Amino acid sequence: NGVIARPLLNSVWFTHDATNADDAGQDADKDGGWECSGGNCLYQPYNNFQEYYGVVNASLSSPTVVRQALLNDCSGNYVEEWWQLRESLLGTCSGSSALNSNYFRMYKINNNDQLFALIIDDNDQDYQYLDTSDDETLCSGEWADSYGRFAGDQYHLPNTGLGEYVFGWWLLDIDGDQIADGTDPTNWDTDGDWVNDYFEIEDDMLDGIRGNSASPIRYDDRTTS
Questions:
Q1: In this structure, what DSSP letter does residue 141 have?
Q2: Could you tell me if 49 and 62 are in contact, meaning their C-beta atoms sit under 8 angstroms apart?
Q3: Rounded to two decimals, what is the model's pTM?
């Protein structure tokens, strides 16, 4: 009806049950996009399935349509299984180039790297007024978690080769592979930077350059000049 809807905070749920896909097409946190090319703006849901894979192509909204799209995995086979779709989208089988294509990579590899996880609760009450004094870092690819830490304190880049994990990794990573398992289907703004998840992933996909601007799992400074 053209009215921008707020997230349904009283019905945000998901089963996380691989044997029950009933909630895969739901979009309780209302973090989708808007199509405004016509006379009216139409809301495009960003459902739980799309959030898990970081998909912003509105046509790839379910496993059925993904299979019909005849996408290729890294071996050139048609995508039929979930791991093939992750492979296709993130480029995880492309060697060192995957460091640039994997927009869900959580750990920071050097000071110039912009593809890493950073979730902050900034406790700000207004978008225009920033107060960093009470920021709480919940997850950071620049720090090493106490779990599996090999040496030193938390304030160093995690050495994944020695078994170190990203600080607060479990907030995004179910299986501990240092790759975020999607954006949060219960939160329209996973990283807490006041920009919704769909917009941040779409920005990177439109220009084809990962991490050059916004990221759905990395808190981005909203300071303007």
A1: E
A2: yes
A3: 0.86
Q: In this predicted model, what pLDDT tens digit does every residue of 83-92 receive, in sequence order?
A: 999 989 888 8
Report which residue type is found at 38: G
Residues of the chain short of pLDDT 70, as ranges, are: 1-14, 16, 205, 207-212, 224-225
**Element holding 51 (H helix, E strand):** helix 48-53
> Residue 12: in which H helix or E strand, if any?
none
91 with 205: CB under 8 angstroms? no
Phi, psi of 83 (to 5 degrees): -70, -30
Distances (CA, A) of 134 to 118, 130, 137, 183: 16, 10, 10, 24
Phi-psi label, residue 163: left if phi above 0, alpha if psi -120 to 50, beta otherwise: left
Contact at 8 Å (CB) between 50 and 60?
yes
Domain boundaries, the chain: 23-207
Exposed e or buried b per residue across 10-33, where buried means at least 16 C-beta atoms within 10 angstroms of its C-beta:
eebebeeeeeeeebbebbbbbbbb
Q: 200-216, pLDDT tens digit by residue?
A: 888 776 766 666 678 89
